[in-house]
User: What shape does this take?
Amino acid sequence: MPIVLDEEARARLLAYYGLDKPLLQQFTDYMHNILHGDLGWSIYFNAPVSEILIGRLKWTLLLLGTATALYMSLGILLGAISAWNRGKKRDVGLLVSLLSIGSFPPFFLGMLLIILFGVNLQLFPIFGAQTPFMRYSSPLDEASDILYHLVLPVTTLVICYIGDVYLLMRNSMLNVIGEDYIVTARAKGLSEWYILRKHAMKNALLPITTMIALRVGFMISGMIFVETVFAYPGVGRLLFDAVTYRDYPLLQGAFLVITLVIIAANFVADMIYVRLDPRLQHN
Assistant: This one.
């Protein structure tokens, strides 16, 4: 129920959160606190925002990193194979199937996987990152349990985002296949797999590298739904809880962390782009 505050209680709350100061002073204080590692105090969890985010960030990075590595690798490989077999049954089958399953929203696909593999077949756990109250006999057992809980959330993200990488890689490969150096490599008698791996794929990866950084932001939005559906204790689920309980300091801290992750992804993509295209090293 709403709580009616008198003027004295309202003034104390405004002073406690610094809302009685001018906006410029509030912004200056906030930036000063950020530079000192102070992201504020969570209203709902009654704990420092930085400590809460650090505890949740490791699970999000594990989920996001594993899903990104898998869907990028599979999308690149399948896109290259599809383009190399353009117009054949393998190409048409991959094109139709990947674009079809990639059209499902993350939350809907996650619920389908929970019903099929978690409830009906009971093959994988349907919530959490670890088994509650479980005592592990070794670090290997703990890692196995974590990976066991990671299967369904990672599968959901991979299926949802593999289609974009596949389609871009396929189109990029189609542009590369007709180049003169591919014809020259075939004239030398090199095997098709060697030409595909050493010549075609390396040059077709340049647009994919740019896409990696752009897709991180979209994956974070999908990650919020996936972590909520699977009750996965990451930053995405934390954002959902912060919105639900109107925990504004926690929301500010979470958005700051997400922004830093996206900036870091763009930086890594730029470094990879330079390694793939040596011409940029001389510019």
